[in-house]
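Lesson 9: reading folded outputs for more than one chain in a single document. The general rule is that every protein is listed as its sequence immediately followed by its structure tokens, and records are never interleaved. Here is the first one.
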Amino acid sequence: MPEDLLERLLYRDALMLVIDKPAGMPVHAGSKGGSSLESLFGALRFGLPVVPRLAHRLDRATSGCLVLGRHRKALAHLGKLFESGVVEKTYWAVVVGAPPASAGTIEAPLARRDADPRSWWMRVDPAGQSARTDYQVLGTADGLAWLRLSPRTGRTHQIRVHCAALGCPVLGDTVYGSGDGATPLHLHARAVAVPLYPNRAAVAVTAPVPEHMAERLAACGWRDERDGA
């Protein structure tokens, strides 16, 4: 398993690692324990005495670019970059239906569905925290659409709730859509651009399309990068 994680390493320097998180694996162990991505981070020390730590989160069902800080100072720096909104995050999703326009912005405040602090389910709520997501339709086929999504805020389940609010939930979403669990969530953290160093271009990293999304993305017009697309 640690060897698999090394194969998923997308970027490495003195401050930061970016890995390709597999869909279906939680980043943290749950209250009942069990396997998690974080428990494998010891394989990513690369000579440092400390284990790298998460700079942000991805949902269990979401795949793609996950950023880690390699030590305490690096993690604090990355935390400030994510908090200030200067990290560019790009997601790809296959959704059921299509948005009302080929491109646009979803601005819908989000709040927890209930007061239980253990609950991660969210809802659109005018009294909630501000949340904004830009989107663009990249292709359509057979009642599905391929979207590029750029969250401008970092709320829990933001993209999933916003897509559902547009009337086109993410394919396979059992919480905010009509998924029954047979189809995996079709949401992928495609790319991240981190302005890690002053006076340098942002570190840009792209994660390959996961196998479970390839067929429907191809139907919507995506070409496999291995074919030169």
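And here is the second record, again sequence then tokens.
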Amino acid sequence: TDNLNEIQQNIILYGSENPALVVYALGKNDKRAKELATIKDPIQFAFAIAKMEAQLKVTKRNDIPAPERKLKSGSSAGAVDSTLERLREEAAKTGDFTKVRQYKQKLKTKR
């Protein structure tokens, strides 16, 4: 959008067979985008885009990443500590969080 005017952008979007590929190619090659931006005649611009699009090719990547492994640990990370939840509820009612802090400190020292 920085290099091409609105008419040129519309020609790419509505005139190319694969506009996403053309936009990607122009985004990767700023020099080529600036060259095309100098063509002010819409018909010549359309032909230049068609020529460029004919030269573009897509290659598939075969480097598929390995599936993510699940971590195994002694304690389950998603487990809910019912004592901690009970203390938090009690502290929310009373406004005194000292028991919650003491319980958390106790858990830290156990680790």
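What the second record shows: The radius of gyration is 30 Å.
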